[in-house]
Amino acid sequence: MYYIGYDIGSSSIKAALVESASGKAIQVLQEPANEMHIEAKENGWAEQNPDTWFEHICTATKRLIAENNITASDISAVGIAYQMHGLVLVDANGELLRDSIIWCDSRAVSIGQQAFNDLGEDYCATSLLNSPANFTASKLKWVKENEPELFNKVHKFMLPGDYIAYRLSGVINSTVTGLSEGIFWDFTKNEVSSELLNNYGISTKSVPDIVPAFGLQSKVNENGASISGLAVATEIRYRAGDQPNNALALNVFEPGEVAATGGTSGVVYAVTDSLSSKEYERVNNFAHVNYEVKKPRIGKLLCVNGAGILYRWLKENTGVSDYNEMNDLAEKVPVGSDGVVILPFGNGAERMLKNKTVGAQFLNVNLNRHHKGHLCRAALEGIAFSFVYGMEFMKNDGLETKVLRAGNDNLFRSEIFSETISTLINQEIEIYNTTGAVGAARAAGVKDGDISAVSKSVMENDFVKKFTPISEKHEALTKAYQTWKTALEKF
Questions:
Q1: Which of 103, 172, 185, 220 is least surrounded by CB atoms within 10 angstroms?
Q2: Architecture of domain 251-433+450-491
Q3: What is the mean pLDDT of residues 327-355?
């Protein structure tokens, strides 16, 4: 028997087939082959059609079944991970009302700031664990203010993974971890925040039913089965945002354990048992997948919106053939990129910069001396420096890193990137050959909240290597980082 895990990104959908008995990944694939389009009707906006996600999930499911010569009945359960902070709206007939306002859309920044002022610093810090900022709740308020006729038709709001589960099952529900990532959850009262909903003028009737992150959430219905290729009554048993799920995929569950990813955006996700935060305007705090009221596990999330998107932009605009060529070019340039500094923040407002929009900045480029190799190295260093800069805020917030784990993909494949971070924070980075889709599939097999089998599967199947601090490069990297930091703080 097998589990299937889906990871709904803004660039692509990843799907994994995992053997239920061993937790071994059989196949991981991506749909579509090219990156999905993000619609930006205005500067700072970002939208996608949720039915496009579902279409690619169906294609991926059918491919997994066909390419592995199995039947739909061989799949006992599915798990769903999804891009965080997105907003999906349906009417009373369950029909989509508009495209999803996705994670990197920054139109609701001022709305969140006003809510922070209205609700007060104490309530936001102690009950929401965050400023409302540009999260899902604020995006819903934006729809209320700017599309009132559409808003009046809203039956339920959902997060992206909730919508995929709904398309498969016909059942609308969400989780505490999902609602907390949208800044709908009151941790003091352990319920949906009536204070926030009242401030935004949003009815509690629009909140989905709440189910646990692990365990039976719904079952695939006849319509979902006919479209997706899954069997009727296949259980949907897990759901989480992509960053809590990536932490799960890397066996990060307990205080001091830290997960990192370097995709389109960069993320450092640390688990703590503390419900207090000093840096809640820069660092996000959500219920982790194993959160319990009596045993709180909070995911402290640092997001760098402008990360891998910068490296992709360089690939598409410098005439290189692929990322391997870029990494080779960067290796030929010394630490510090001969003075070239790149601030990578060209993907909307940056949470860790208190929602300022700095943009991508290319500084100190000498047109007679510097070439694309310098840009490649400065980009890798600039993104790595932004991780280190953000981790300084997390350390100020009480984070003590015991172990740092990352997936063997995207930016962490680059030795320059990984060794820069490792050296500057003086911490080994463990690399694992896993993905969010594999993690979601394994999580679908969790019974009675016991995550030990997930941990065992990661440690037995996925470890690849470690990056260790390089003492002989520490001085040069520290100098380059201080130059970068000075440049950033001028903005």
A1: 172
A2: 2-Layer Sandwich (3.30)
A3: 94
